[in-house]
């Protein structure tokens, strides 16, 4: 049983990545393994990242385009 200090925090963000305390070892459904020693690792949940499974902020581009679709057409 992990102690309170050993517990990792996983934070889900709205429309963005899953933030996980590092270091981490990520195993994808295709069997690829990606490791990161960063203090906080952003894991892509939108599948648009060119660095998948790591977030490259591509999710922001989609959101901006979605925002434009809400604008009235002229
Ligand atoms: S969540 Fe950031 S690129 Fe997918």
Question: Could you explain the architecture of this structure?
Answer:
The chain has 74 residues and is an alpha+beta fold. It has one domain. The protein contains 1 helix and 5 strands; from the N terminus they run E-E-E-E-E-H. The protein has one helix at 58-69, and strands at residues 10-12, 18-21, 24-27, 33-36, 40-43. The strands form 2 sheets. Strands 1-2-5 form a 3-stranded antiparallel β-sheet, with no helix packed on it. It has a two-stranded antiparallel ribbon with strand order 3-4. A hairpin with a 5-residue loop joins strand 1 (10-12) and strand 2 (18-21). The longest helix has 12 residues, at 58-69. It is globular and about 50 Å long. The chain starts with 9 loop residues before the first strand and ends in a 5-residue tail after the last helix. The model has no long low-confidence stretch (mean pLDDT 87). FE2/S2 (inorganic) cluster (FES) is lined by residues 16-17, 44-46, 48-49, 55-59. The site of FE2/S2 (inorganic) cluster (FES) has 12 residues, from helix 1.
Which characteristics define this entry?
single chain; 16% helix; alpha+beta; two-stranded antiparallel ribbon; metal-binding; 74 residues; 2Fe-2S; metal ion binding; three-stranded antiparallel β-sheet; Iron-binding zinc finger CDGSH type domain-containing protein; FeS-contain_CDGSH-typ; binds FE2/S2 (inorganic) cluster; globular
């Amino acid at each position: 049983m992990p102690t309170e200090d050993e517990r990792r925090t996983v934070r889900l963000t709205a429309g963005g990545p899953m933030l996980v305390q590092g270091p981490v070892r990520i195993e994808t459904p295709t069997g690829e393994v990606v490791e990161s020693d960063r203090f906080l690792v952003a894991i892509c949940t939108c599948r648009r990242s060119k660095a998948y499974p790591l977030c490259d902020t591509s999710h922001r581009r989609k959101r901006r385009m979605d925002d434009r679709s809400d604008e009235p057409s002229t």
